[in-house]
């Protein structure tokens, strides 16, 4: 299996990440389209909110999206577990917070 990480787009700021690029003068889908033209069908961006860094995978090709959701659907459907989600979601019983499984 070949595990490569997707390229990260250039221009992330230390505190905001790529957020200023996405809320600039262009419409959001146009900004992401321009990044897809430059970096390819799959790339990553960093969104930093209140000292938390979220590395986000952006997929802009239906072929790759189909592969992600058909072959790797279980991995994408699993949500990270945390104490907050456990308490708010009644021990992961709420559908929106439940990891992949019997629910």
TrEMBL record:
Keywords assigned by UniProt, alphabetized: Heme, Iron, Membrane, Metal-binding, Oxidoreductase, Transmembrane, Transmembrane helix
Q: Which InterPro entries match?
A: Cyt_P450_sf, Plant_Cytochrome_P450_Monoox
Q: Name one GO cellular component term.
A: membrane
SUPFAM superfamilies named among the record's database cross-references: Cytochrome P450
* Location within or outside the cell: Membrane
Essential cofactor(s):
heme
Listed name of the protein: Cytochrome p450
């Amino acid at each position: 299996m070949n595990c490569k990480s997707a390229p990260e787009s250039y221009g992330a700021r230390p505190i905001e990440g790529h957020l200023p690029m996405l809320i600039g003068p262009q419409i959001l889908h146009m900004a992401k389209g321009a990044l897809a033209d430059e970096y390819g069908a799959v790339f990553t961006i960093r969104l930093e909110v209140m000292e938390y860094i979220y590395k986000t995978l952006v997929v802009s090709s239906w072929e790759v999206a189909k592969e992600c959701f058909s072959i790797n659907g279980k991995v994408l459907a699993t949500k990270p577990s945390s104490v907050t989600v456990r308490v708010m979601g009644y021990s992961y019983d709420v559908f929106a917070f439940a990891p992949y499984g019997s629910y």
